[in-house]
Every structure is written in C-alpha cells, then in structure tokens.
Write a structure and sequence with these properties.
The complex is a heterodimer of chains A (321) and B (316). Chain A has 2 domains: 5-90 and 172-315, P-loop containing nucleotide triphosphate hydrolases (Rossmann fold), CATH 3.40.50; 102-171, no CATH class. Helices cover 29% and strands 23% of the residues of chain A. Chain A contains 10 helices and 12 strands. Chain A starts with a strand and ends in a 6-residue tail after the last strand. By secondary structure, chain B is mostly helical. Chain B is 80% helix and 0% strand. The longest helix of chain B has 38 residues, at 222-259. The N and C termini of chain B lie close together (8 Å). Classes of the chains: A alpha/beta (321), B mainly alpha (316). The interface between A and B is medium-sized, with 29 and 22 residues. The structure holds adenosine-5'-triphosphate, iron/sulfur cluster and magnesium ion. Residues 14, 16, 21, 23, 41, 43-49, 59, 61, 212, 278 of chain A line the site of adenosine-5'-triphosphate.
Chain lengths: 321, 316
C-alpha cells in the first residue's frame, strides 16, 4: 500500500529553558507515490525537524501544529499506538548518522529481525533469509556472515547500506533518508547515490531525501523544496529549481558555484550573513537581512507563497507569476 | 580475552597475599598479649605458653605468614585453638549459610530492582516513576540491621509469622526458607532501591542514544526497546556496582547474622575475634577475600562478554 503524503500549515517548536525555538513555520509540502522529493537548505534550517515530524519521531520537547496526512489519514489524529504501528511499516526513516544508528551490543541480524516485527506471518528463519536477500540487493557481499557482525565491525558505508536495507525490508510506502551520505567519504557517497538511483527505479512509494549537497539532490530527485530558517521558500521540479530559480535565496545558493555541485561539500556554499534567531523569527521575510533585493515591505510584511506554475512556488515579494 | 583473564587472576592472587600480610601485621601491632586477653589475667603461664604455641605467635611474623600460605596451598588453614577442629571444616560448615543468605538477598534485589528501574524509565515523568524514586531513596537510607531489628519485632515477635532466630531445621527446606526470609529481605531492601536507581539512571542515558531512535523508527514496542535494546547496555554499570557491592552484602550479612543469631561466617568471625582465636580469623578472612576477588573477576569477565566492543579490546 502506498499513498500520497501532504503536510499543510505544519509548524514545530521546541520548548527550551531559553524559550521556544520555532524550528518549522507554516510549511506546506506534498508528495505522491513514485516521486523522489529533495529537501535542501543550510544547516539548522529545519530539514531534520521536518522529516522527523513526518516520521512521527519528534523528541519530547517538540510541539507540533498543523496537519500531516498520509494516504488520506491525518497522522496527528491517530493515537500513540496506531502511530507506532505505522512507523516501520508504512513509514521508514534512514537516519543521518550510520555510525550510531544501530545498537552496539546486538548483531545486525538480530536487530533487522526485530525491525520486521510487523510481519507476524514470517518466522525467524524466513526473516533472516529476507535480510540476507536484502543485504545482497544493497550490495553487501557475504550477507550471511555480515548478519552475525556487530555494528562496529562494519565500515561506515556498509552500515549506511544496512540502514537502507533495514528500511526497505519493511516495504514502506514512505522512505525518508536524512542526509544519507553526509557522514561518508566521497567514494562511499557515490556508491550510496548509485544504490539509491537503482532503488528508485524499482520502488513505487515515496522517497524523501534530505541533503545539503546540491549535486545529490540534482541526481536523485524529481522535485525539490528549498528551506530557509524554518520555512519552505521555494519548491518545484528539479529542472525549474536548478534552471529557473526565482527566490533570491535559491539563486544565491546556486550562484555560489554550480561547478562545485559534484564535489563533496561539508555544508552549502556560503552566502554572506547568518540565518535569523529562531527564538524570535522576524515578522517580515525571514531572508530580508541577507537579501540583496530586499525592498520596503520585506522587513515588516511576510511574503505570500506565489504560484509560478502547477508545481513551482516561491515565497517572495519580488516574485511575480 | 584469555590474557585478560590471566592478568586479572594474577592481580587477584596478589590482593589475597596483601590482605593476609595486612592481617598478620595488624595482629602483630595490636597491643596486649593475645593469650592473656583470651584466657584472662589469672591463667597459668604454662597455659598461656601452650596457647601462644598453638597459634604460632612465638614465631617471627614473616615466618608465620610464609607458613600460613604454605599450609593454605595444601588445603590446611590451621586449627581452632579451642576445639582443635580444622579451620577449613569450620568455614565449610558456616559458608553455605552465609552464601545462601547473600545470594538470596542479591537475587531478590536484582529480580525486584531491575524491573522497577525499567518501569521507571517506561513511565518516566509519571506518578509511578516518582513513587519508585522516593521509595528507592528511602530504602537506600535505612541500614540493613535496622530493617532486621524492626522486621524481627514485627513479623517474629508481634505477628509470629516467621522464626526469630537460627537458620531453620537441617533437612527441612520449608523451615530453612522461612528462616531466610527476614535476613535476606533486610539485606536486599536497600539494594532494591540502589539497583532501581542505578538501572534508571544508566537507562535514561542510553534511551537518549540515536540507536534507540532507530528502534523507535521501526515501531518496536516500548517494552521491547527498554528490556532488550536499552537494558543490555544499561545493565553493565549495574553489574559492576553489584560485583563491588557483594563485599558490602557479605559484610551486612555479618551484622544480620548477629541480629538473627544465624550460624554463618559472620557469627564465626565475630566469635573468633572475641576469643582471640587467630587461626580461625585468618582462615576465614582468606576464604572470604578469595570469594570476593573471584566474584569481582567473574563480573569483569561477564561485562566483557556482554559488550562486544569491550570483548574486542581484550581480544586485540
Ligand atoms: N530537541 C531540540 N530542542 C531544541 N532545539 C532543537 C532541537 N532539535 C533541533 N533544534 C533546533 O531546531 C533548529 C532546526 O534543527 P534541524 O535539526 O531540524 O536542522 P537541520 O536543517 O536538519 O540541520 P542540519 O543540516 O545541521 O542537520 C536548529 O536551530 C536546532 O538547533
Ligand atoms: S521577500 Fe524581499 S527580502 Fe524576502 S526574499 Fe523576496 S525580495 Fe528578498
Ligand atoms: Mg539534520
């Protein structure tokens, strides 16, 4: 089963001793079966917050507003038990850091057997043979033996493959990969991207890929959302975003040096200035302090979401359809 | 792993020797003539000399120590100066009672403390967590001999549910079990609180680790995350705590045995010290130290087994 995903007017704030951090504000996104969605933006702009909210795994100090519907069901209205049943069955999250994603004192095989707990119809032996097959599919040789390894006995790239295999084992309708390659070196990164490109050919659910690497997004995704300081500032088809960006922030990102797309970057190319403090988000455009095109209304009036085409939107006063 | 075990055992033997040297040094340094203390001021000089010879106190201290270990290696721990029975026999008679008491107390403490700690974590921030927390801290603060005395008054004297003293009839399991309830509970009570706090604290730390979020992201039920994914890691500090604590469990057994007039190592040592029966004191201390050292080594090896990362460090 796979259905469409839609988040509308989604806001998340984290309660902290220093006040609330408004990490996500009025975000609208949608995704349909068969699509690969990219989410890109500077560090701290709320990418992980967004996907963790989608996977229903926000930490205890997070407060969520707005709605997330998957396959026509409003996730926020489900009770905790139903939400748990959905996780790891319909929705799978491949986490940001493969080094710490697995339990250090249990074998890979043991954990992957547990992760299939939704499949009550399968015995332990069947689950293990599914694991072996899946590990083979993500390019791990000698799968039978690897299953009896502890996480620390595998390399980072191999662990990331195992993490992807674990997610695929549950046959999810929505697969979320939060920076699947950030912790890896360039060679490993290329291999994982290759793997994900292959997967997307045979997979008909939704894939959401978070990255601050524009090259990864360009290679893997159908559509992209560009985030800045907790808001989606522009969204559209990959072609539209990379060749016809309309929001000044997206343009600045791309202008930095498109030739470096295929290089391994620690973070997004730098733009002068720093993002606003999310404890007190500005009342006007969040990008105004750094925008070279800012004009009168930008500092005080929040810009509307301007629809440029069927799928291309940008949140800016200077943009006209 | 083997090299590690050998190293730990060597260190254990060294500790054993050092403890005995310290014991002999203490006897040597204690003022007063042990024979006079034991026999009273009006004993005849011949009697005193006989006693001193029997305890070997006429030999130089270092020679006493060498003799002691030489004999101990052949299984001879010396003889009770009063009854002339072998010390090893006395210890072997008393030891089972004390070990049963200590291990029962420990088992009870673990069987109740670990689940309580887990429950606290699963219900963190709720009333149940708070109640467990307050009770734990409460029972940790109460010394076991106080629990012993009050439970004696309540259950043996007032309610008459349980026997007040002794270790039960030999051969009668039910009466032995009944005699075990109060002493074991007296020792276990504080440890239940201790273990529950310890498990909760290390578990809370583990629950914040990313791999727990992974387990959550696959929708594993909370009880399984707590009891399998978190406990396997969180139990490790608890095992060290318990291993180190066994010494203190055995020493509370000494007090508790005194309160319940329960035959055991505690009673053996107390009586021997009071009558300056040095061979019995030395032999018993040696055995108890050996047990303590073995438990600590066993705990370390168990920890190495539980944590594959530690295991690899030892392998390499
Ligand atoms: N549990 C939390 N409590 C308080 N603030 C948080 C919490 N988690 C995240 N934040 C804050 O929320 C903001 C968004 O964080 P988020 O992790 O979503 O960013 P990100 O875009 O994923 O960044 P990165 O690229 O570094 O992974 C940041 O300012 C961060 O400091
Ligand atoms: S709204 Fe104004 S400040 Fe914001 S991006 Fe557009 S032009 Fe720049
Ligand atoms: Mg992130």
């Amino acid at each position: 089963m796979s259905g469409s995903l839609a988040a509308s007017d989604l806001s998340v704030r984290y309660e902290t001793p220093h006040g609330a951090v408004h990490a996500l504000r009025h975000v609208d996104i949608e995704a349909h079966p068969g699509e690969v969605i990219g989410i890109v933006g500077e560090s701290g702009c709320g990418k992980s917050t967004l996907v963790t909210a989608l996977a229903n795994l926000l930490p205890a100090n997070a407060r969520i507003d707005g709605s997330i519907s998957y396959n026509g069901v409003d996730l926020a209205k489900l009770d905790a038990h139903r939400q748990r049943l959905l996780r790891g069955d319909e929705i799978a999250l491949v986490s940001q850091d493969p080094m710490t994603a697995f339990n250090p004192v249990l074998t890979i095989g043991d954990q992957l057997v547990d992760f299939q707990h939704h499949r009550k119809d399968l015995g332990r032996a069947q689950k293990r043979s599914r694991i072996a097959a899946m590990l083979g599919r993500v390019g791990i040789a000698d799968a039978e033996r690897r299953m009896d390894c502890y996480p620390h006995e595998l390399s980072g790239g191999m662990r990331q493959r195992v993490a992807i295999a674990a997610a695929l084992l549950t046959d999810p309708g929505l697969l979320i990969a939060d920076e699947p390659t950030t912790a890896l070196d360039v060679t490993m990164e290329a291999q994982i991207i290759h793997l994900m490109r292959e997967l997307r050919r045979e997979y008909n659910g939704i894939i959401i890929v978070v990255s601050h690497h524009l090259g990864v997004i360009a290679e893997l995704c159908d559509r992209v959302y560009v985030m800045y300081a907790g808001e989606v500032v522009e969204g559209g088809e990959v072609d539209a975003i990379f060749h016809d960006a309309r929001h000044p922030y997206t343009q600045a990102l791309l202008a930095c040096d498109p030739a470096r797309f295929h290089e391994k970057l620690e973070r997004l190319p730098t733009i002068p200035g720093t993002p606003p403090n999310l404890t007190q988000p500005p009342s006007g455009c969040v990008y105004a302090p750094r925008c070279d095109r800012a004009f009168a209304p930008c500092g005080s009036v929040a810009p509307p979401l301007v629809k440029l085409s069927a799928s291309h939107v940008a949140r800016c006063h200077a943009v006209t359809p | 792993m083997l090299a590690y075990a050998v190293k730990r055992i060597g260190l254990g033997l060294l500790i054993l020797v050092l403890v005995m040297v310290a014991m002999y040094a203490a006897v040597f340094l204690v003022p007063g003539d042990p024979a006079t203390v034991a026999l009273g001021p009006r004993a005849t000089p011949e009697l005193k000399r006989l006693l001193i010879e029997r305890m070997g106190l006429d030999l130089p201290v270092w020679w006493q120590i060498v003799e002691f270990f030489r004999n101990a290696l052949t299984g001879n721990l010396g003889y009770d100066v009063w009854s002339n029975r072998p010390v090893s026999t006395l210890v072997m008679e008393a030891l089972p009672n004390t070990l049963i008491l200590g291990l029962t107390a420990l088992a009870v403490a673990l069987l109740i403390g670990v689940p309580l700690g887990c429950l606290s974590v699963m219900r963190r921030g709720t009333l149940a967590d708070a109640v467990i927390g307050v009770l734990s801290v409460g029972v940790i603060a109460v010394p076991s001999f106080v629990v012993a005395i009050y439970s004696l008054l309540l259950f043996a004297v007032t309610l008459r549910w349980l026997p007040a003293i002794g270790a039960g009839e030999t051969g009668d399991i039910v009466s032995q079990a009944k005699a075990l309830v109060m002493p074991a509970a007296a020792i276990a009570l504080g440890w239940i609180g201790y273990i529950a706090r310890m498990v909760r604290a290390s578990m809370m730390e583990v629950m914040g680790e990313p791999h727990i979020r992974t387990a959550r992201s696959f929708g594993l039920p909370e009880w399984k995350i707590v009891s399998k994914y978190a406990l396997r890691i969180a139990i490790i500090p608890t095992i060290s705590l318990v291993a180190v604590g066994l010494g203190s469990i055995l020493s509370s057994a000494v007090f508790v045995e005194a309160v319940f007039a329960r035959p055991g190592i505690g009673k053996l040592i107390t009586d021997a010290v009071n009558t300056r029966n040095y061979p019995v004191v030395m032999g018993t201390v040696l055995i108890m130290t050996a047990i303590y050292v073995s438990i600590t080594i066993a705990a370390d090896l168990l920890i190495a087994r539980l944590d594959p990362r530690v295991r690899d460090v030892f392998r390499g």
